[in-house]
Amino acid sequence: MKAIYASFLLTPCLSLAQASDLQSQLEQGAFPQAIEQYAQTSDNQSKFVNAICQLGSSIENLQQQLYTYGFGVNSRTIGLRNQAPIAQNPNPEKIDYTKFRTIIEQFHKNLHAIEKTLTTLGDDDFYLPLDLTKVRFDVNQDGKRTELESSMALFLQINSRRPVSQQQAAEFDQFDGTIGFDRSDLIWLKGYVQVSLGLSDLVLAHDFEQAFNAISNNLFQKPKNTLNALGANDENYGDIANLIAALHLAKMPVNEPERLVQSRQHLLNMVTLSKAMWESVLAETDDRKEWLPSPKQNSVTGITITAEMVKDWHLFLTEYEAILNGEKLIPHWRFKEMGINLKRVFEESKETDVVLWITGHAAVPYLEKGERTKDDLWRQLNQTFEGNFLGLSFFIN
Questions:
Q1: pTM of the model
Q2: By the 8 A CB rule, do 217 and 234 touch?
Q3: Where is the signal peptide (predicted)?
Q4: Dihedral of alpha carbons 151, 22, 53, 277, sign
Q5: 25 and 171, same domain (yes or no)
Q6: Are residues 232 and 350 in the same domain?
Q7: What are 262-296's pLDDT values in tens digits?
């Protein structure tokens, strides 16, 4: 969520009038104008402004596309009603697999543009105090940006998995969410772009049309699929049947194998950037409204990072890199003496069958004898991160 929150910028070197104009531009979604005015130099601050404006525009476009097609997570059987971080569209358009895939492809393309902006970073530092809670997106494309469309409302809806009320939005709009961004956070953003590219490439490498068609009734208001065309409904556990069918049909051909190779490389790039980020964070001597703090700093999020956490995070990076390079194998519950070479999975896969991976049958071509990653390390990591290693790993990157 830091990448979402970092969608607006206020630099101390600007005059008050310029700063106010920049803040206003970003809150109104005038990202191209902000880039033209405040991101035309080669220093790190300019690159940060450019990347954040591109990201803000990409996130707004993604929300608009999902709103257009009435995105939501629904299940009558277990009582879910429009569990999504965007408002429900009263008149959504119909969606099919091709349109859904196009949404992902467009976001992936936008991420590549940000990656290009951040190709080369300088050594110069900067300090940008930003009130990140005030950015608003025009989700429903009505030309207005309301409190319910703010970055804070988006975060709260994702976190609580329920819509934010007008009263809650108004209260949070008074919240001071100022964060002091600097060069360390620029490296963080560059690393997060790599992770996002890796995950989106992983998805786009596959043809997942059958699985999408099976589950699309649970995700969109007007999906185009065979069951809908025949008049089927989701009453009497029909939505649970969709989940079962989607799992059964999650036998996805790898139609773009080069994307799998790219995915692994993006995920590996994160290791280098995470190490560089921590080197930068640990070298800081100030303590000014930090996002990701060192053990000697405080975070405005209230999250504390200890020296032991930093140490164990580097252990994780070493293990993670070894797994992606096939130097350490991943255990599978059905094989006591062998493990999965993940590097070969990325480089050789022709198909991903989720059920057969669970049962172990799909793992057979990639099984090898060798050193496997050990459960003890992952237990140690979870203990060091107070039982929330997975959650904090998304924050730390």
A1: 0.90
A2: yes
A3: 1-19
A4: negative
A5: yes
A6: no
A7: 999 999 999 999 999 999 999 999 999 999 999 99
